[in-house]
Amino acid sequence: MDSTLLALLALGLGVAIGAGITAMIVAAMRARTAAEQQASSELPDGLTDVLAAMDDAACAVDPSGLVTAASTAAARFGIGVGATLENAELSRLVRAVREGGSETATLRLARGGRNLDPRLVAARASRIGPRLSLLIIRDVTEQERLEQMRTDFVANTSHELKTPVGAVSLLAEAIESAADDPAQVRAFATRIQAEAARLGQLTGRIMSLSRLQSSDGLGTFGAVAIDEVIATSVEAHAVQAASAGVELSRGGDRGAWVQGDGQILIEAVGNLIANAIVYSPRGSRVGVGVRIDDGVVEISVADQGIGIEEADRERIFERFYRADEARSRRTGGTGLGLSIVKHATQRHGGEVRLWSRPGRGSTFTMRLPQIASPDVDEDVVSRKSKKPKDKSKKKRQARKASRLAPSPANTTDTIRTDTGELV
User: Fold this and answer.
1) What is the pLDDT of residue 227?
2) Model's pTM, two decimal places?
């Protein structure tokens, strides 16, 4: 055989053997890489940064249930790096996606690993690697509560409106049947007027509450003088207090200003005063006081009435909730006054606090952020000072000030700051 042909055959055989060996090496390397990937729990690039930027609770979990990375919010549910995923329902959700795909579930979880305050969450698990799964937990408790509140509000409103509407209908029928008896007609007409007034009050308060809870329900805020708010609220309820035999007094710091809507604040303070009068016995005292404390304006309304049981204090600000159903029905209460107070205070960046003892009275305190008193234009003041004095107007203002000014013995300066009790 020709030596050239033999050389070519040897060369071809060598190339074939080399290609086979190379293919075997490449296959072995690929198998090794795949095996390493299957056994690796290394986090994908950028996952830690993504988790750190998430507001929801989220974590990466390996097949053994070990948390290898977690967002800051995950700590609220007792999930931390290096810890094992202890919740059985979450563990089952993670195992379900081990072969691929994603799974979602809605369940209740305890925050901080305790059984207190269980939260409704929407959990979603997805596979992000051969050995890792991503678990995202979104807290939807507030959405559930809002939906429940919306449902309750519709149901309660329908129930509350049905009562006066039904009463008006029955009274109208009674008037028709007693058309020949003028005394009965007048009695039924008086009751219709009372039911119509109650219906109007209920409708107005529902509208006020809806406006406070809507995102665009409030207009532009401005500087509000708390002195004017208190004076207007006290004056508006002076007749009610006199009819109930309750002494109404005011006191405390003067010159406080807040940022807000004056009419809404007047309504809120007025609701507190009206409630205090209704739940106070004849001959007792209701005090309205103002205190400025470290940039916070505290408006307190204290009474010496029946007080509120501890079991009712947590729910007293709920819509249509009445601690004393019989008294509320008798006095025409709607159950919305304190809810309006709560939402009005919150919309002004504040909070409402309650102190109460059964048989000793209650004190509701609205705490609002204080602002500096607005500057007064000196030119305007000088021009006003040059105007002719209206003596009759000055006399009217003096009489009004004397009615609203507290006497030394009847001010709410005696509201104890440690307990909130009117003494």
Assistant:
1) 93
2) 0.49
